[in-house]
Amino acid sequence: MKDTNAxxxxxxxxxxxxxxxxxxxxxxxxxLPAKLRGEVPENMPYSVWQLVEHIxxxxxxxxxxxxxxxxxxxxWPEGYWPKEHxxxxxxxxxxxxxxxxxxxxxxxxxxxEPGVDLYTPFEHGSGQNLLREAMLIADHTSYHTGxxxxxxxxxxxxx
Length: 159
Description:
Layout: H1 4-17, H2 25-29, H3 48-67, H4 90-112, H5 130-154
């Protein structure tokens, strides 16, 4: 019988990387015209840029919380949502997406550490453990990736 921890870790990695039953974060942001990145469709509260940044900030916070007991999270909710509707330039857009991808890989490395404990609550926090944080990254990113696709549909930029 396979090591249960290895099976759970493999499933978590697949969940965090996305795909399978839905579009990935990379699919959702791919080839979005620059002029649409800051557009807020009618009756919607945010732009694609704001969602991308929200995903980036939240994932960074979860990663740092999971590996650094001294990490201080931003204030909720204002610290997790950018005020600007659009990136300042193409480089800001590219860097935000690159950071999401880099820090996703950094989080996945935590799951590969020898003797990793998914279940014991961290000494800091209020009962969180690595399993919960991994599922939180996957769930949060998936949810907002779906919203990015909805916004792209509303903007006429999704097939």
